[in-house]
Amino acid sequence: MSVTIIDIARRANVSKSTVSRVIAGTGYTSPETRKKVLDAIEELEYKPNAVARAMVSQRTYNIGVIIYRQHHPIISHPFYGKILDAILATAERLNYSVFVSTDKEMSLRSADDMLEKRVDGLVLISRLNQEMIGYLDRFHIPFLMVNGTTESEHVIQLVNDDRRCGVLAADHLFALGHRQIGVIAGPQEHRSHYLRLESFRGRLRDLGCGVSEEQVGYSPTSMFDDGQQCLLAMWERSPIKPTAVYATNDLLALGAIRAILEKGLRIPEDISVIGSDNIDYAHLSTPSLTTIHIEKEKMGEDSVYMLDRLIQKQALDGKRIEYEPKLMVRGTTSAISTSK
């Protein structure tokens, strides 16, 4: 027969409410009484189940993760998958269970599903609209955003400094002597791709080296196949062939590499390629991909620690936390040949 709070109270000779306070860690209990309760718990080998913990603490120790993304894959995506892995590992360390949902439409249905599960808080990954923010605010449920931004000042947002990504890539290629540079840009409705393209072109303009529209390929997705197709289309369209290509994420860059090799060109001798994200596939390519490292795991880990503080009604410093990207120079970029 399982041990109950009543059994603990009898053994420690205290009230049930006192036992509840000790288990939940709330309210005042004298050190002597607390020791008696803890001793009784140990003697009786009491292990509170999730239902009992929720009744005592008014918490379920469940958190929800909703990933808003229109295109597959979602959970297995090499960028979002890393964030999710870090969330799951950190939640386990803090004794949370995690419900994961994906939503292509950014609908209220996904939030309703999580609210029905009585989650203590939500991590919302990628895009978020004002309707969703207002809906969650009405229920007073703690939530924060990862890899997405909003104009709502009260929402905590954990994001990469995507403008810095474009600047790092532009500076690297310019320093290697490249002046004719193409771009494979992911969906421009997505914050990261838009900011990376804008800052890349802006930085090159500041350096006196613009990027013409003919040398920009706009991809409908951020996936490998579209990167390959965009490079081929851009190559045919551009009257002056680029000596380097920047892709706004690594999957697009790897697709572009496939197209370049199919044309019989050498990387980096004939053309240099740089991506963004530093996914696992980046260092597995031949040659390995020069890219911009994004703190994917750190964003996922920090999101759970911050959400835990919000759940416990603790104050947090800052509403938008930006993570600094870092250039990873590998084998797909080199100084331009003097014969070019």
UniProtKB/TrEMBL annotation:
Residues 3-57 form the HTH lacI-type domain. The keyword Transcription regulation applies. It comes from the Bacteria. CDD domains: HTH_LacI, PBP1_LacI_sugar_binding-like. One of its GO terms (molecular function) is DNA-binding transcription factor activity. The keyword Acyltransferase does not apply. Signal peptide: none annotated. Pfam families: LacI, Peripla_BP_3. Gene3D superfamilies: 3.40.50.2300, lambda repressor-like DNA-binding domains. Keywords: DNA-binding, Transcription, Transcription regulation. InterPro entries: HTH_LacI, LacI/GalR-like_sensor, Lambda_DNA-bd_dom_sf, Peripla_BP_I. SMART domains: HTH_LACI. Coiled coil: none annotated. This is LacI family transcriptional regulator. It comes from Paenibacillus sp. SYP-B3998.
